[in-house]
Amino acid sequence: MEEIKYRREDEMKDSGIEWLGKIPKEWGVTKLKYELKNFESGKREPFYEEEVLSIGGEHILNGKFNLQNPRYVSYKFYRDSNQGKIKENDILLVKDGATIGKAMYVNKLDFDAMVNEHVYRLEYSKYGYYVILSNSTQKQFWMKNNSTAQESINSNTLKNIDIVKNSKEEQQKIANFLDYKTSQFDSIISKKEKLIEKLEEAKKSLISEVITGKIKIVDGEMVERKPEEMKDSGVEWLGMIPKDWEVKRLKYLASKISKGTTPSTIGKEILEEGPVRFLKAENIVDNKVSLTPECFIDNSTNKILSRSALKAQDILFVIAGATIGKLAILNEELCPANTNQAVSFIRLKNIENSKFVFYWLQSSNLRRHMWSLTVQAAQPNLSLEDLGNFYLPYPNISERTDIVNFLEIKTKGLDNIINKTKTQIQKLKEAKESLISEAVTGKIDLRDWEIREVDES
Q1: Would 295 be classed as within a structural domain?
Q2: 288 lies in a domain?
Q3: Residue that finishes a domain, picked among 136, 165, 194
Q4: The whole model's pTM is what?
């Protein structure tokens, strides 16, 4: 990437606004409401089969549409609505929920769609899109939020966002510069994300090959089993397994398979601090239990919800929502703990089997079968019955131990590369965010910038 030129200190002045900092002397400060041509949110009707896309916060990811789990409204509802219809060159801004502040610019639209009540449709400009993405604006979404309920960007907050005032020519240059530069960042990030996908698939394939017995471990090395060593498992999606292995259902290895409950259903609350950790689907990340978000319940709530009180070595498996299939083994130091209805737990009769089952649940064979059973309603859902009925190949204890020890070493190597790549992606995203903020507040000198062609496909 070419070197970026910054304005000299003597060309800058204090904007008088904390989050904007210094801006060029010839620039001013204004409110977003004076630059917006129009803004509105939409609405929706009850779930309707595939007609017109209804765009919510979950459908906006990394500046693009994410339509893995689409929602719809009817053509009649769309036709009769007087607001929320998406057009090309609109900015879509998530106004509340888990992805508050996320935004995208609609370069091209080849289908009918409308925003729901959780997303604003803004008529602004490409420059305005970058203003929305800038750190100074994103900070204000939180700092100026007066909502007493959940975090949200209400209309008053949006209208009164402090932004810089500059000429249309300067705005055009900034937008073009950022189109050009962010596309370079996005290209590098995309390549690294594809590398992670390949590594994740390689990891699942490795686990499948080893844990279904197609590969055996001899003195720590992988040796392919001969066809005459194999037999039909009797389970179509499982395929061939070694002749001396058994096939078992998960429920027969478990003493308990269950799920949790949201405390509010029994008139109780989730706490910011407390004696019992309360785990959600968001806490299961990269096959581990993450400490964020930190949620707790008190002892009395935990007693009422004793059915889902967790124990060390329980396998946590997400059965509902966008992260269905994520899993982790609960460690002793995180207990006492409980969980909600989106997370199931598998408590094995013999905890020495925990790692073996944990790896099996990550295998390609199992994942494909899981998705074939998943109910695609408002959100993906897997029943406890289907979870308990999962088949798994089952060798003797000695071979199970060898498999687990081998996979511990091999997957750790792949995980290290994946985590290193994720760190690189995060640093690139932070550098991109910083570049956007410095450009829209005039700290980068673009007076000599010449407009360039940018592929926005």
Answers
A1: yes
A2: yes
A3: 165
A4: 0.82
Backbone φ and ψ of 12, nearest 5°: -110, 160
Residue 152, beta-bridge partner list: 96
Tell me, yes or no, whether 213 lies in a domain. no
Same domain, 158 and 250: no
**Total number of domains in the chain:** 2
**What's the domain range around 251?**
246-394
Among left, alpha and beta (phi > 0; psi -120 to 50; other), residue 351 is alpha
Structure tokens at 26: 């010839």
The residue type of 161 is: I
Amino acid identity for residue 247 in this structure: V
- Domain endpoint, select from 126, 145, 165: 165
Contact 310, 338 (CB under 8 A): yes
At residue 190, the 3 state secondary structure works out as: helix
pLDDT in single tens digits along all 457 residues of the chain: 678 999 999 999 999 999 999 999 999 999 999 999 999 988 877 766 778 999 999 899 889 999 887 889 999 999 999 899 999 999 999 998 778 899 999 999 999 999 999 999 999 999 999 999 999 999 998 887 655 445 789 999 999 999 999 999 999 999 999 999 999 999 999 999 999 999 999 999 999 999 999 999 998 889 999 999 999 999 999 999 999 999 999 999 999 999 999 998 888 889 989 999 999 999 999 999 999 999 999 999 999 999 999 999 999 999 998 789 999 999 999 999 999 999 999 999 999 999 999 999 999 999 999 988 887 655 678 999 999 999 999 999 999 999 999 999 999 999 999 999 999 999 999 999 999 999 999 999 999 999 998 876 6
Same-domain status, 161 and 279: no
Domain check: are 265 and 128 in the same one? no
